[in-house]
């Protein structure tokens, strides 16, 4: 169960990153607002790494 949960969270993390990149390239919010920032990206990467650590034996 832990494996599938970690995989799902990782996939969701990648989807969020893709959405952030898409919004950055084609602003889906106000033009003067940047939906992506380094803190958010780092948080997503750290969460993804934690999940990958759970998967690896």
Molecular shape: elongated
Structural class: mainly alpha
What's the alpha carbon Rg, rounded to whole Å?
Answer: 14 Å
Low-confidence stretches: none
**Helical segment count:** 2
Order of helices and strands: HH
Mean pLDDT: 70
Measured between the Cα atoms of the first and last residue, the distance is: 14 Å
Instruction: Give the proportion of residues in helices.
Output: over 70%
**What fraction of the residues are assigned to beta strands by DSSP?**
under 5%
- DSSP strand tally: 0
Describe the main β-sheet briefly.
none
Describe the model.
With 57 residues, the chain is mostly helical. The chain has a domain of 39 residues. 74% of the residues lie in helices and 0% in strands. The protein has two helices and no strands. The longest helix has 24 residues. The radius of gyration is 14 Å and the shape is elongated. The model has no long low-confidence stretch (mean pLDDT 70).
């Amino acid at each position: 169960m832990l494996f599938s949960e970690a995989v799902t969270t990782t996939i969701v993390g990648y989807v969020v990153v893709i959405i952030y990149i898409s919004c950055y390239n084609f602003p889906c919010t106000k033009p003067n607002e940047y939906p992506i920032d380094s803190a958010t990206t780092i948080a997503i990467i750290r969460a993804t790494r934690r999940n990958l650590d759970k998967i690896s034996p």
